[in-house]
Amino acid sequence: MRRFQPSATNPWNRVKAAHLLNRAGFGGTPDELSRFTGLRVEAAVDELLNFESAQDVAFPDVDFTAIHELYEELVRLRRSRGEQRAIRAAANQLNRANREKFQEIRAGWVSRMIQTRRPLQEKMVLFWHGLLVSGFPETRSAEHMAIQLNLFRRMATGSFKQLILAISRDPAMLAYLDNNTNRKGRPNENYARELLELFTMGIGNYTEQDIKEAARAFTGWSFAGNEFVFRGAWHDDGVKTFLGRTGNWDGSDIISIIFEHEATARFLPRKLLEFFVYQAPDEPLVAELGGVFKRSNWELKPLLRTIFLSEVFYSDKAMRTQVKSPAQLVVGAARTTGTEIPPLALVRAMDLMGQALLYPPNVGGWPLGKGWINTASVMLRYNFSTLLLNGAMPGVGGGRRAAPGRVEHLIEVAKVKTAGDVVNQLVDRFVQTPLDGRRKWGLLRAFGTNREDTPVAVDGANFQNQLRSAVHLVMSMPEYQLT
Amino acid sequence: MTRREFIKKGLTMVAVGGTAPSFITRTALAMNNPWDVAQVTSRPGVPDDRILVVVQMGGGNDGLNTVIPFTNDAYYRARPNLAVPQKEIIRVTDELGFHPNLAQVKDLYDKGAMAVIQGVGYPNPSRSHFKSMEIWQTADPEGRVVRYGWIGRYFDSKCPVCEQPTVGVNIGQAMPLAMNAESGMGVSLDNPETFQWMPAFNGLGAREEQELFKLLNAPAPGVDAPGTIDFLRHTAMNAYVSSERVRSAVNGYRSGVEYANTRFAYSMRLIAQMIAGKLPTKVYYAHMTGFDTHANQRGTHENLLQQLAEGVSSFYKDLEAQGNADRVVVLAFSEFGRRVAENGSNGTDHGTAAPMFVFGKAIKGGLYGSQPSLTDLQDGDLKHGVDFRSVYATIIDKWLGADPSKILGYNFDRIAFI
Q1: CA within 20 to 30 Å of B271's CA: A162, A343, A386, B373, which one?
Q2: Cβ(B206)–Cβ(B172) below 8 Å
Q3: DSSP state of B158
Q4: In chain B, where are the structural domains located?
Q5: How close, in Å, is residue A401 to chain B by CA atoms?
Q6: ipTM of the predicted structure?
Q7: Inter-chain contact A473–B197, Cβ cutoff 8 Å?
Q8: Mutate to test the interface with A, among B81, B191, B215, B228 (most CBs of A within 10 A)
């Protein structure tokens, strides 16, 4: 892939630095933009990519002790043939506690996306959660989901082949796609089908018979507690023919055969291009990246480095053309404004916008691009700014009207003399690219003027209210929905 | 009032700084012009006020445990753990019966207000959720790369009225491909209360902010290249011009009929409210999910059938109370049925043909098509007898009064349920 070569006509600049921070992470503050603009593009990319060297904030693990105790109590009641009512009550209590843990994990994850000093790592966790999908209600255990997220974090940019092997043995996934009950004689095809269609190769590269044979190979792959177990008695050790290869295959053999195919070499590169660059990338581009992927022995880092340093990544087709996912919108706003909002409210806002973390719509994960946008979601996305400004938005707590929050931290007050200064600062923080004159004029109107050079008094009686309106309007613009 | 006057009214409604982009003018025109929607159906003999409600049963409904061939030994042999015991089945004929949890829709069946079209599918069936759902939504099994949905193409065939955003209303978080039209995307909403743009607290004042909102979201022909940003502007303006109308339609009607406390029943109630509120809508879309029962199917599937029956039954009662039951047809489908033989997880894997359901006071209820053989299978799956596009063709032609051959690309046989 052609490398991006900064030049006088096509320099590495603030807009490109913002692009990199947005796509490879969840966006940067004006200060971070300035710092990244001052780096060479390679240094900027490598800083994001080699996140292991960044000392991250200490994020607390969710404590599942109480869940374990409730579970043991339920088992004890059942064993001792306790009263049905008591058993039901204990089961309900466990379910409730488990659902609360789901909320705790979701809130913790969003906080982590906002606070992390390793933004690419969390971006990849989100990518994997949307690709190798598991979630409630099929995965009942919150702890299993926490374990899976940690797996994604640990293997975020490692070997894809190793990750596929690991996810095939992951309790949350085994439960989500029912492989935990896949047994000899009457195999369950669910995991085998989605492994081929959605996780590694894509539709059209295998037959229905291949799915049936792969399902046989994965019989007996199950879990107990939080651990993978291989149930030998359930495993079909007969001969299978998969993608033209005949042998006494088990699940790991199936994965090895999958990774011998060109379709697999192209599958993940295409997904990464769609997630990080643009949708429907040309086949030659995908094939080229597939070559990089094969040569890297399925390691992600060389692939990501190639993408983030490519000409195509900084092309007009890529820049500011991606619809922000709800996670990108919500986390990005919290991160770039430094506004503190209870994480559960942010999670709820994302739920309403259609991206309920750990509650994916189906095994296909979430849409991309325009799929996020419809009449309802666009209103929710626009109204989201009121959660930042007022602490409440329609559908999220606090009633329609909570108290107005402070907003002056969104601008650098010392550098403000005119309405144009305020508008320029807001555009830099939120849109991160210049606006056309007409839209800019719309924002000036929020300060009661048609002219950029109209002086404003930041300590004036109405300034806070005007600023609040202006921020709300900026975030209610189509431009803000894109990155 | 003349069309010109409507245009003027539309302009004053949304004008910003003395100019209104043509798109807004057209939308406003359609919103203000109640008889425009009537033009969506204009063929003599087909009343103009008919409504279609599509119910998507996502995940692949186990048709064989829904409409059950209860005298067929092959059914019980294939389903040692999952077969519904004969004595529990609600008999429809000497050979076929409904799952016990469909009791409430059996009442509709007995009134002639429910049609079951058996063995519906398409050639070379895909067992992928995503591919098969796309095929059902585009009505394009041949993979001709159809970008718009079958309902969207119906809207497109009735332009310029198609530009009215509320011609199609989806209840849910994501707009289905089926409703995607060249002429626009329609309205999608989940909760009417959040379907509005809120001005900032203590800001400039709502009025001024609304004006600026329109300016910042107005499509600008000749200035902005078409693309995602243009799509966002159109969607935002669709939302803006339709939100008040939708909310007032919903808020203007309280049903006396009781609905179950489920997501699906909520959707059906919302649709009933919009119908009562005279929203100018031809097609509504509602969703059920969770039919992908690979493991421990029994409880899940029973529960889903219960939800379907309760939701449809309450909706029907509500429409009767409104006096609208004659105007509305409900069409329920799933992307595929399930494998005849159960798997070792007390579930069923992806299959092929399955029954479709049509509800409505104006239809001719009963059984259509025939139950596919349980022994003459293709790769363990049922062979379809009725192409789903025949069902669509019947609806498009006999219910909506449009030409199905244009929309579906071929003149499929009609089925006698309408």
Answers
A1: A386
A2: no
A3: T
A4: 1-32, 42-408
A5: 7
A6: 0.92
A7: no
A8: B228
- Say whether A362 and B347 touch across the interface (CB within 8 A): no
| Residue A104 neighbours by CB distance under 10 Å | 18
Q: Which of A179, A218, A375 to mutate to test the interface with B (most CBs of B within 10 A)?
A: A375
The SS3 of residue A245 is strand
d(CA A145, CA A151): 10
Nearest CA in chain A to B224: A436
Residue of B nearest to A375 (CA): B239
Of B116, B175, B109, B115, nearest to B148 (Cα)?
A: B175
CA distances from B42 to B37, B50, B51, B165, B224 (A): 10, 11, 14, 19, 36
Q: Are A370 and B232 in contact (CB under 8 A)?
A: no
**For chain A, domain boundaries:** 14-49+261-314, 326-390, 408-481
User: From the CA of A442, how many Å to the nearest CA of chain B?
Assistant: 6
Residues of chain A with C-beta less than 8 angstroms from the C-beta of B229: 478-479, 482
Structure token pair of residue A446: 């929020």
Distance from CA of A439 to the nearest CA of B (A): 6
Q: Indicate yes or no: CB of B239 within 8 angstroms of CB of A178.
A: no
Per-residue DSSP letter, A80 = T
Residue identified by tokens 């894997």 is: B349
Alpha carbon distance A478, A468 (integer Å): 18
DSSP secondary structure, A348-395, as one string: HHHHHHT--TT--SSTT----GGGG--HHHHHHHHHHHHHHHHS-BTT
DSSP code, position B52? E
Kindly report the nearest CA distance between residue A209 and chain B, in angstroms: 9
Q: How far is A395 from chain B (nearest CA, A)?
A: 6
A102, two tokens: 């789901």
Q: At what angle do helices A419-426 and A463-475 cross, to 10 degrees?
A: 40
Query: A468 contacts in B (CB within 8 Å)?
Result: 200-203
User: Which H or E run contains B294?
Assistant: none
Predicted confidence pLDDT, tens digits, chain A (483 residues):
899 999 999 999 999 999 999 999 999 999 999 999 999 999 999 999 999 999 999 999 999 999 999 999 999 999 998 889 999 999 999 999 999 999 999 999 999 999 999 999 999 999 999 999 999 999 999 999 999 999 999 999 999 999 999 999 999 999 999 999 999 999 999 999 999 999 999 999 999 999 999 999 999 999 999 999 999 999 999 999 999 999 999 999 999 999 999 999 999 999 999 999 999 999 999 999 999 999 999 999 999 999 999 999 999 999 999 999 999 999 999 998 888 889 999 999 999 999 999 999 999 999 999 999 999 999 999 999 989 888 888 888 754 445 677 788 899 999 999 999 999 999 999 998 889 888 999 999 999 999 999 999 998 888 988 999 999 999 999 999 999
Q: How many beta-carbon pairs under 8 angstroms link A with B?
A: 200
- Secondary structure letter of residue B398 according to DSSP: I
Q: Residue B317 CA to chain centroid, in angstroms?
A: 19
Best CA proximity match to A185, nearest among A233, A227, A148: A233
In eight-state DSSP terms, residue A54 is S
> Tell me: domain B42-408, CATH 3.40.190.10, correct?
no
Q: Say how far apart CA B306 and CA A118 lie, in whole Å.
A: 47
What global pTM score does this model have? 0.93
Residue A123 tokens read as 């971006």
B413 membership: H or E segment, kind and range? none
In B144-227, which residue ranges form alpha helices assigned H by DSSP? 150-156, 206-217
State the Cα–Cα distance between residues A477 and B247, nearest whole angstrom.
23
A22 sits in which H/E element = helix A14-23
Q: First vs last Cα of chain A: how many Å apart?
A: 23
List A370's β-bridge partners, or say none: none
A71's enclosing H/E stretch is helix A65-79
